[in-house]
């Protein structure tokens, strides 16, 4: 069937408004998510776990960081289903409110000293809610910005979601720098709670921004003509199962982020290396600041030369640069750590990170785009989230086997490279034709003529 182009044109200003909403919402959402990562590496082993065994306490604390990633696939099934039935906007608002609430509650939790083993149990429950929220956040924001964007600039506009993620991570790091500088007794008594309580502002600001955004033209057109599928998941698995698997494999590149953000921070500040906590937080802050500039540049390049080459550069390059970064930490040389951290995370990883919102989203049709992105990415991210726990085990009893962790991270970059090599190049495909691949045995309604 033929889909008219005119109704799919976004109203003036909506592409920028959608990108801005995606940026700010993701920044606020992932501020919540990443302050947990900093706390899991620096605070929670002492507050929620057994202080008599620091190594086990650190391992258990890092495992709670991965719990949210385990909850993500479940959240993706639920939120993806309703996002493709009810629209992108409703999911964007819901995920932000859920993340703000769950993060605020973490700041209110009693410690292990106060209530015993109930403390880590409550911590895990709040972390699960964070994971469910994050499962729908990026997929809904990516779908919203992609479907509002001009066809020849989808990479640039969708990259605002990931720029927002890096902005949130930067904000989380900057908030933790003065908190981490508090005297130890004040830090463990009340200081660590402040970043979590600030999530109340996250929820209010995010709601105000997102509730005024229009639904996307392609989703509106889909609902008004063919209608939305009753069971998006069934359509997704029937028509796009290979792309779902491809996104799962490609999403493993997120392991680079979790290793850099959590395990490397824990390793650098451990007794094995002994680097200053605040100094290492500044490495993350400056790397994220560079990423804020690098992500839209890589995305713009992908609008010109394609998604695949840019993503491949980021995935393969990250396998190499993580070796250099972890080696630099092992030397204890702060200038070396700073430079290589910025190169590895701020520049090279940003190539894959900046282009994947368009790269993954363009694999699916409007009917199942949010489901496809949510389920595919969240399964991959779940594995990436537990990469921190595996890294802590691989690093050995003293936590100093950085080369084994670097090899493990490089191995996790191989599936993304294979996924990208087998994917279609889609940067020149019209938005209304994305994900629609005519087949001889396909129903007429699946054949879209631009």
Automatic annotation (TrEMBL):
<dbReference type="GO" id="GO:0005886">
    <property type="term" value="C:plasma membrane"/>
</dbReference>
<keyword id="KW-1133">Transmembrane helix</keyword>
<protein>
    <submittedName>
        <fullName>MFS transporter</fullName>
    </submittedName>
</protein>
<keyword id="KW-0813">Transport</keyword>
<feature type="transmembrane region" description="Helical">
    <location>
        <begin position="310"/>
        <end position="330"/>
    </location>
</feature>
<dbReference type="InterPro" id="IPR036259">
    <property type="entry name" value="MFS_trans_sf"/>
</dbReference>
<feature type="transmembrane region" description="Helical">
    <location>
        <begin position="280"/>
        <end position="298"/>
    </location>
</feature>
<feature type="domain" description="Major facilitator superfamily (MFS) profile">
    <location>
        <begin position="18"/>
        <end position="428"/>
    </location>
</feature>
<feature type="transmembrane region" description="Helical">
    <location>
        <begin position="118"/>
        <end position="135"/>
    </location>
</feature>
<feature type="transmembrane region" description="Helical">
    <location>
        <begin position="247"/>
        <end position="268"/>
    </location>
</feature>
<dbReference type="GO" id="GO:0022857">
    <property type="term" value="F:transmembrane transporter activity"/>
</dbReference>
<feature type="region of interest" description="Disordered">
    <location>
        <begin position="429"/>
        <end position="450"/>
    </location>
</feature>
<feature type="transmembrane region" description="Helical">
    <location>
        <begin position="156"/>
        <end position="181"/>
    </location>
</feature>
<feature type="transmembrane region" description="Helical">
    <location>
        <begin position="372"/>
        <end position="396"/>
    </location>
</feature>
<keyword id="KW-0812">Transmembrane</keyword>
<dbReference type="Pfam" id="PF00083">
    <property type="entry name" value="Sugar_tr"/>
</dbReference>
<dbReference type="InterPro" id="IPR005828">
    <property type="entry name" value="MFS_sugar_transport-like"/>
</dbReference>
<feature type="transmembrane region" description="Helical">
    <location>
        <begin position="91"/>
        <end position="112"/>
    </location>
</feature>
<keyword id="KW-1003">Cell membrane</keyword>
<keyword id="KW-0472">Membrane</keyword>
<feature type="transmembrane region" description="Helical">
    <location>
        <begin position="402"/>
        <end position="423"/>
    </location>
</feature>
<feature type="transmembrane region" description="Helical">
    <location>
        <begin position="59"/>
        <end position="79"/>
    </location>
</feature>
<feature type="transmembrane region" description="Helical">
    <location>
        <begin position="187"/>
        <end position="209"/>
    </location>
</feature>
<feature type="transmembrane region" description="Helical">
    <location>
        <begin position="336"/>
        <end position="360"/>
    </location>
</feature>
<dbReference type="InterPro" id="IPR020846">
    <property type="entry name" value="MFS_dom"/>
</dbReference>
